[in-house]
# Entry
Amino acid sequence: MMGADTEVFLTGATGFVGGHVLRALLQAGYRVRALVRPGSPRPPALVGCRLVTGTLEQPGALAPAMHGCRYLVHCAALYSFAPADRRRLARINVAGTRGLLEAARIAGVERAVVTSSSVTVGPASPGRPATEAQWAPGDDGLSAYHASKIAQERAALAARVPVVLVLPTAPVGPGDWKPTPTGRVILDFLRGRIVATVAGGMNVVAVEDVARAHVLALERGQPGERYLVGGENLSFRQLWQLLAAVTGRPAPRVELPLEVPLALAWADELRCRLLRAQPVVPLEGVRLARHYMYVDDTKAREELGHQPSPVREALARAVAWYREHGYVA
# Structure
């Protein structure tokens, strides 16, 4: 399936996951046509591909740009917990995906890989990690980003082009320049801002493993199937201990009842609604933190050949990158 004559249309190449997917595709021998928004940054990772200017808010215009591409890998998404962005989440993540896949069909694309999120399967059951057979509850009016990813998946599965869905957990590693919410957690730890913890946990995965899983999904994934791509299931206490070992900073010892960060998050939600600001304590993230977001990624391991690497090493690469690039004084 791969080779110099096989071209892939990639969205999201300027983002954290998408930039790593670009490198993985190039390393696998694909030629890449990368979609970039007008005025978006041009990181060094974009070297080696052909750039196409466009936006997911006008996906129909992308059909001519995709002509000649055999495959589509769709990593782009609006990742925001800000109340002011809730309408844009539906417009970009859901309608944009639907329109992009229809444009791909018109352009003659044979196969698409769409990046979703493990939040779409919901939290683990007591004693049992979540699997692809599960779907998280629908929109409750507050979890706009997560609801948009569920709706995006359903739109992708209804598309008239063969689609494989990749559901990464929480990726960590170098190059998270914005950063993502998970990257902000690492930065907050580095800056000494994590002074307490809560019960709960999540699955953490190296971003390079997520990128390789996209190539594997393109080559081996079954159309219409969802693949959880994870690394290690970690309680928050275990995550802080790993970060402490990597950074030399102490792990928090005090465990707060969820009501404390939840009250702070509701206050921040009100501030964001009044001022159209970005959240400091995202309500959506705090509400998710009460759960154990553990997953079973056996399907990706067995069907795709996904082989996750140690999370501690990925955290070390992330910390080194933030320090090298001046994020930490």
About this structure: Residues 7-171+207-231+295-308 form a domain with the Rossmann fold fold (CATH 3.40.50.720). The mean pLDDT is 91.
